[in-house]
Amino acid sequence: MLDCDIRGIPATQLIRFLTLAAQPIMQKYVKTLIDRLYLRFKSPEGVRQVGALPYKFVDGQMMFLLVTSRRSGRWIYPKGSQIKGLQNWESAAQEALEEAGIEGEVERQPIGSFRAVKRVGQRRRVVEIDLFPLRVTTQHDRWQEMKQRRRVWMTLAEATTRLADPVLVDLTQKFSHRLMTEGVVAEERNT
Question: What is the dihedral of CA 20, 21, 23, 29, to 10 degrees?
């Protein structure tokens, strides 16, 4: 349950009203609004996931690989549940292989974390996702979820306009800035 209120109206009542009042054409927007309310006011339920921030350099320019989510088609990074028996960073690499068909060198420390709403049927829950940078060395032509997702390499500017979550935009910019200050981008431009 959400334990907050908005202008004196308990959030649970607001969500119930929005769900019932929405015409079929508006339901997509209402679901997005409800998800945003959950993200803003509900604490994560102790559920952690992992994600990969796939990148590579093409002609000295940093590129990021985004995939579409299966449910809504929004642009995101590969993510999923932690896999039993694997380290978090290994699980992130496995999610990237399954969802985007890529492999590479994954950092063992996350660049940061973000929150997302995970929907299972009518139930929603907030999950915390640790994001691990993955420098892509191999891109497969065929992969497990290729019929369920699209994948596209984008520049930093393209990625930041396409990413659905503003926190992912911030993490992408933060990571790009880190590579620039470490001199990695300059090294790649000189090779």
Answer: -90
Between 155 and 165, name the one with better pLDDT: 155
CATH 3.90.79.10 positions along the chain are: 48-190
Beta bridge partners of 135: 55, 105
Taking alpha carbons only, the member of 116, 103, 87 closest to residue 144 is: 103
Task: Give the three-class secondary structure for 111.
Answer: coil
Show the CA angle centred on residue 28, arms to residues 24 and 34, nearest 5°. Answer: 115
Q: Give the residue from 130, 34, 121, 42 showing the smallest Cα distance to 81.
A: 130
Question: DSSP readout, 27-54?
Answer: HHHHHHHHHHHHHHH----S-EEEEEEE
CATH 3.20.20.140 fits 48-190, yes or no: no
Mean pLDDT of the chain: 83
Q: How far apart are CA 189 and CA 191, in angstroms?
A: 6
